[in-house]
Design a protein that fits this description.
With 762 residues, the chain is an alpha/beta fold. It is built from 32 helices and 13 strands.
Amino acid sequence: MIQMIYMGIFMQKFLEKFKRKPLLFLLPSASVLLLLFLLFFHSQQDADQAFSKYTSELFRQEISGNTITLHYTLKNPEKYGIENAPISYGQCTTDPELVRSSVDAERTRLRSYNRTSLSKDNRLTYDVLNDYLNSAYDLSPYTLYDEPLAPLTGTQSQLPVILSEYRFYEISDIENYLQLLTKTPEYFRSILNFEHTKAESGLFMASYTADSIIKECRDFVHLKESNYLYSSFVERLDELASTMNLTSKDFKKETIEKPAYQAFHLMDVDSELDVRNDDSVNEYTNRLMKVKEQTIQLKSEHKSLLRTYQQQGIQWLYDLKNMNLNGILADDMGLGKTLQVLVFYEQYVSKDKPSLIVCPSSLMYNWMSEIEKFHIGVDAVCVTGMQEVRKDIIQESHELYITTYDYLRRDVELYMPMEFEYIVLDEAQFIKNPKTKNAQSVKSLKSKHRLALTGTPIENSLSELWSIFDFLLPGYLYSLNYFTKNFEKPIQMGDDDRQSQLQKLVSPFILRRTKKQVLKDLPDKVEKDMWLNLSPDEKQLYLANLAQVNEQLQEQLKLEQVDSILIIAMMTRLRQICCEPRMLYENYQGESTKFTMCLDLIETLKENGKKVLLFSSFTSIFDSFIEEFNHRGIKYHMITGAVDKKKRKEEVDAFQSDDSDVFLISLKAGGTGLNLTKAQAVIHFDPWWNVSAQNQATDRAYRIGQTKNVLVYQLLMKNTIEEKIYEMQKRKKEMSDVFVENSKGGIASLSKEELKDLFSME
């Protein structure tokens, strides 16, 4: 008895210590719970209504007997008629007669129903329930033989475990949880009272058992705030905050308000969150339905200018605006995203507040050119020049400001006081990394509406899609941590359910049309991968460098942080050998397989009257090509990153109008802003990490205005790093295609295993 009292003291200390942190109760047997579930969800036929009402009532009564059972069984109890259930662990009954009479009363209720009048299924339910109640009645005299406390498996051990897994779906769950903890001393007093009653009846707990239980309680108390119960509580708070994009201030509010679009997507998608919506959400969704029925009327000059799919795109932009939603216009390259936005802006966007377009520097004047070309009635200005000049322009009063990502980073403080009607991001993949100043700058600006333009919202990882949505609809795809944990990583591991869920979330806000879908008059694009083998001399060089690279790589992989610059440098050496060994070894006298093949291909295309775009990520190779072009009488033009905007335009215009044969273009310089429809062939001399960049380059020729078939060649060396890059592109493209039907791939996301595979010859 002394030992029992001693145990009780420690139990109370244990409970008082964690009064504000999670614990459990005595759950009803799993068999009873399962049975009651079956009873409750039983089909209710007219002939069995009374019996069904009884079993439903019994289910609600039993399931709401304690808070933990209710919480773990039903996520939304109110849907099942259980409201305002008392916060409780339940009680330990010490009176066998009370148990006996309670069970007997339930048997009497059951037997008041005529078994023979029930359906076959309900007769089975009746028999199972009757059998259970008879067994409970027979066992009622042995109530005191139960043992709620036991080493390792008793309530004092299992309660913290169950409470540590008590999920927080909403703020009220936290409140119920904390209130439940205040009931803990009362609950354990009932357990101690049960143990005293047992002892008085001669059913003593063994001393060894009591000592073991006391030691468990002591050990737990000594852990203090390092115990898993406390840490799990913090983790669950963080998870809820991350999921719902909450701050610490939000937890102090009685009501938390979130944008309507968040509630809308949570209602529409299976979510672990339980969202309580007020009437405003219903009003909002009803308004969305009405907006869908509205049809725009374009001006006659616009209607004659636009293709059908472009008119549909403007309708989509109009619908988004009226619903106070934002989205991504993700049309294929060359389908006129700029024109769609400008026509929409002129006709349907308020000019009471200015709007802002942010784009790559190569596209700034393209926007102004389109405004002038299509006679768009808008007061637009390019924010360019020295900083003082840009400051003066920003402080002027204009309807539409056009700036670059680079300028915006420097001028963001000047834009902060302004409130824009629209902010449009052209080539929105420029904010794919949420930690960059590009992303942080545009997200800090105030605007009523936002729009993203990009054919490649996913280039390297799904988190890039998250970053764009964080600009468009903050919080819609949850926090970045939650998105990574619950979407990106599971999808990478092949979770089809998460993939479908994400598709459902993003698809309404992305409009994507491909050339193949909408341009029936556009000629074909024929793509061909040309695989080549290293010559003996090239192979010898490649293997020697590969051995050196692998040695360096192994040293790098031992470090906590891999030197990415060194890794890229090692890769570059191998890629250069594949392209032209002389880029590394000036005195190399052996065969240059790819370089020779490319020259032969260009001459063949020239003989067939086809102008060629030749892309490479290595501008140094262009000197070798130019030397050969001059020798062979091949006329050419060239642009690299070093060519200024004026010269760039001159070279493009010349190629479009003269009898030149080849346009040499560095991949980065020629990925955007060029219209080179006079070319009928595209050669990618070396594969790039990001296949979408290659696709953008190809689309310099394959776009509106092209009247002839376009041949696209990719030159690849077998059993080299180029083959590894190619395979990686294919794998990663598959995931991106699911969401936007475009490509991705990149060095930044490579795992150690991928790096090792990259440098293998297998």
